[in-house]
Amino acid sequence: MALKLAIVGRPNVGKSTLFNRLVGKRLALVDDRPGVTRDRRYAEGSIGDMDLTLIDTAGYEDVSDDSLESRMREQTELALEDGDLILFMMDAREGVTSLDRIFAERLRKQHKPVILLANKAESRESGGGVGEAHALGFGEPVAISAEHGEGMADLYAAIRDASVDIFIEEIDEPDKPIRIAIIGRPNAGKSTLINHLIGEDRLLTGPEAGITRDSISVDWEYEGQNIRLVDTAGMRRKARVQEKLEKLSVADTIRAITYAEVVVLVMDKDNAFDVQDLQLADLVEREGRALVYVAAKWDLEENPQAKLADLTRMADDKLPQLRGSPFVALSAHSGRGVDRLMPAVLKAHATWSVKVKTKDLNDWLSMATQRHPPPAVDGKRIKTKYMAQTKARPPTFVLFASRAASLPEHYIRYLTNSLRESFDLPGTPLRLTIKGGSENPYASGGAKSGPERYKGDAKTAPRAVRKKAEEESHLPGKALEQKKTRVAKPRIIGAVKNSASKKAGSSVAVQKGARGGARQVSRSGRVRTGQKHLPKK
Questions:
Q1: Which amino acids are annotated as binding site for GTP, given as ranges?
Q2: Which positions fall inside the EngA-type G domain (predicted)?
């Protein structure tokens, strides 16, 4: 399903013009008069290589009565709820208006990504309006001209960056088959299993190892569901793969795993979970595919119950990242236990395609952090803020937290295991990404921090200032403290006329006497004789 974009804003800012440009057709009526659009309109469009579902809305009016404008506003509210990403458009020629500010306050309550567009920015007169748009609080505005097609590259980059953490629902086509890859070591019984499932000898089988060389697709229908089974070549250890043909077969098998939805790992019951089986299972987990274990040749097992319990315990111990994956014991030669394979595959596929509501995720996050709070790193506790699912197949989640880079690996494993247990997601690979808040661009070192101001001990300080600071740094503690707290003395100015010193409020403190001596002068300008300080005769 394509990304849904809701184009909103006050009347007559160019929403329908942008809608028509992204759709590629003149579907919406465009006129200079405000209020032409009344209903919200849906259409498929694109920008660059991104497929979009566009929603054109009526101009937002701040009314809540029974009028037509109020009903138009309700349609805009529904578009905000339905859209994945909001394009908030304002007129760069007119600048920010009071209605723009009211609408901006409404958009902050949506908790959805908002891209601010400054439309009609093709002229010089619009520069002031683009600058005013920063005050709306949605970051750097994207200056565009919907009528002339200017700024579309910047709009594409903004949509691409804002839609990284948006979950886009994947809707399967009605006839789209479930792709199942059968993998394992050579001579594990993969081709025999497929032949038994489809009921015919479609693939070559035999006691020789390595009969299958390339991946072969077989279309099949199981209880009304289209299935595409992919038989792959047996994969040996990498050190033993020397021939070019076998290398190509291994590459083809890896490609089949990449394009599969569910992977069935077939193992010999006597040598299950050896090094090669573990590497194959780990490859499936890294590719993010659902996994089902199969223990083949089960008709030869004398104690099946105890053996199955041991293998299940071994799978959980050696592959904890895939704990809970379905385990099926069968015999493709005799057909014993084969009927349990497809229900396990469909269950694994359903778990792999699960979608968890954001509200349930945040309720779970609150309980998980209360039960086991995040650790304190360097004396500061890490705070979890918000969690959402961004993708399915495999389930992918993003957690926003303060100081995300400091969150320990063991706590991430705790959250992953708790998530798997709480929402019943056994066996399927889970992806949990930890992200921090947006960085302050005006902080030191940011993109807009500007040149660094002079600091006393900075290397860029003048040489004289640095020399003075170095001299002060060598003073004892008490002397340095007295030097810093010392009150500045008044300046001494020589050869000042008597008439100037007599003015009220004069800043002159001392003036030269007739015989070269210094005589004290009061702030009012009167000369102190200083007779009482003369020595007695």
A1: 9-16, 56-60, 119-122, 184-191, 231-235
A2: 3-167, 178-353
The C-alpha atoms of residue 321 and residue 416 are separated, in whole angstroms, by: 9
DSSP character string of 497-512 = -HHHHTSTT----EEE
Rounded Cα–Cα distance for residues 454 and 131 (Å): 29
**Backbone phi, then psi, for 372, in 5-degree steps?**
-145, 90
Q: Which fold has domain 358-436?
A: GMP Synthetase; Chain A, domain 3 (3.30.300)
Q: Where in the chain is the domain with CATH 3.30.300.20?
A: 358-436
Domain limits, CATH 3.40.50.300, in the chain: 3-29+39-164, 178-205+214-352
More confident residue, 115 or 451: 115
- Over range 374-398, report the average pLDDT: 89
Q: Residues marked as binding?
A: 9-16, 56-60, 119-122, 184-191, 231-235
Question: What architecture is domain 3-29+39-164?
Answer: 3-Layer(aba) Sandwich (3.40)
pTM: 0.61
| φ, ψ at 7 (rounded to 5°) | -95, 115
pLDDT band of 489, cuts 50, 70, 90: low
Q: How much of the chain, in percent, has pLDDT values that exceed 70? A: 77
Pick from 234, 237, 314: nearest CA to 269: 314
Spatial separation of the C-alpha atoms in residues 53 and 35, rounded to whole Å: 23
Distance CA 9, CA 284 (A): 47
| Cβ burial, residue 393 (10 Å; 0-12/13-18/19+) | middle
- In what side-by-side order are the strands of the sheet with 50-56? 41-47, 50-56, 3-9, 85-91, 114-119, 142-143
Q: Please answer whether residues 237 and 167 qualify as being in contact, where contact means their C-beta atoms are separated by less than 8 angstroms.
A: no
Q: Quick check: 366 pLDDT over 80?
A: yes
The CATH number that domain 178-205+214-352 falls under is 3.40.50.300
The token duo for 329 is 């014991």
